[in-house]
Write a structure and sequence with these properties.
Length: 407
């Protein structure tokens, strides 16, 4: 029995949803919380408003209205969910995971829809992209925040945004900035991440890494093979050049090398090239142990776009998959962890992104995360939130069942 087959769940769900009653002053609206979440848990093939309404025997428009226009505070619901997780699931080696997912959509009315890269299908497609923050500790993981990535073309067309009820203050933001806002919300609500991890789409943004470090957040994230850095801290000077205008900004001392890609650092920099690979047992999978070979060195990144070096060193970890016999698979990670943090701890975190991938898989296949078919921004955000809320509830029920069967 998995968490989607738990018996006698309705009563437990009702008790759980009472914790969110303050999100609406209207009793009928609170009833729709349970109606909608029950629809998400059900065996419906599509978890959209029409299917949920027909199964519950209520007018379709009433469910559409509840989701898109009814007055209730979904931001307070998100805050309450995060505070519950902060209280109930705190502990050692808690991991925050930043990732995005996509949904193929037809037409041009769904908020944020356009032809763009959709990781779900691995190509350019007409669809939407959402950014998420997950939390994982021990056997528990959950999606704790979600937001729509609004493309620039949408942001610049406010008439189109207003037709989809996208608020005027919701504008184009780079995905890493959305992720940083989600991180700040979660920590303000009491969630403590011992570690934060992310893929190269976020790790490849130096300003994102610097912002996390300024928040005293330990991280290890993947970066692209074309990520630029110095293998040694270059010397800088404020002295003016002999010819030309007097400089008031620092510059590299003449003869100092510029940044290079980390993949070239692996090939040509003696600090990595001449270093022996060391095997590390990452984890046990269902079939066989997962083993990668590792090299590590210090690197330095720019403190601003095209600027001088940031004097704080980061750790570059290069991982090579020894299990992949068909082709060489190499990943590059960077971390701000001090030197006394073991590679075992770093690799455990770096290879934890499967937790958010599993969350996406479960919520899409079982809870209809991508089944929203409306044209309303608030409806979309609420649907994503209620899927996350439902997934958290099911996780707690599964953990309780696991604890009971192992004692």
């Amino acid at each position: 029995m998995d968490m989607f087959e738990i018996v006698g769940i309705s009563t437990k769900l009702g008790r759980f949803l009472k914790r969110f009653q303050s999100c609406s002053a209207d009793e009928r609206t609170r009833d729709y919380f349970q109606l909608y979440v029950s629809g998400l848990i059900s065996n419906l093939s599509r978890k959209n408003c029409e299917a949920i309404a027909l199964q519950a025997g209520v007018p379709v428009r009433s469910v559409q209205w509840f989701l898109a226009r009814q007055v209730w505070d979904h931001e307070q619901m998100r805050t309450q969910l995060q505070k519950i997780i902060a209280k109930k699931h705190a502990g050692k080696h808690s991991i925050g995971i930043i990732d995005e997912t996509s949904f193929v959509k037809k037409g041009d009315k769904t908020p944020g829809v356009q032809r763009q890269y959709c990781g779900t299908v691995g190509k350019q497609e007409n669809g939407i992209v959402t950014v998420h923050l997950a939390y994982a500790i021990d056997n528990f993981h959950a999606l704790i925040d979600q937001d729509l990535f609004l493309p620039e073309a949408w942001s610049e067309d406010r008439e189109r945004c207003r037709a989809a009820k996208v608020p005027d203050d919701v504008v184009y933001r780079q995905k890493w900035k959305i992720a940083l806002e989600q991180y700040d919300r979660a920590t303000n609500n009491g969630i403590v991440f011992e570690w934060l991890t992310f893929d190269e789409a976020y790790g490849g943004k130096p300003e994102f890494l610097r912002q996390l470090d300024q928040r005293n957040q330990l991280f290890i994230g993947e970066v692209p093979s074309a990520f630029y850095a110095w293998s040694h801290l270059p010397k800088t000077t404020m002295k003016p050049q002999k010819h030309g205008r007097k400089r008031i900004k620092p510059r590299l001392v003449k003869g100092q090398s510029g940044t290079i890609e980390v993949r070239n650092m692996l090939k040509y920099s003696p600090v990595l090239r001449d270093q022996a690979w060391v095997k590390y047992h990452i984890k046990d999978s269902g079939k066989e142990p997962v083993i990668w070979e590792i090299k590590e060195c210090e690197i330095f990144i720019r403190k601003e776009e095209r600027g001088m070096p940031w004097v704080k060193p980061l750790r570059l970890i290069v991982a090579r998959n020894v299990m992949n016999e068909k082709e060489e698979e190499i990943k590059f990670f960077v971390s701000n962890a001090p030197a006394d943090v073991s590679l075992d701890d770093l690799l455990l975190t770096a290879f934890s992104r499967w937790r958010v991938e599993r969350s996406f898989q479960d919520t899409k296949q079982k809870l209809g995360l991508g089944d929203y078919e409306g044209r309303n921004y608030q409806g979309l955000i609420r649907h994503l939130l209620l899927c996350s809320l439902t997934y958290y509830f099911l996780q707690t029920q599964w953990l309780a069942l696991l604890k009971k069967t192992t004692h």
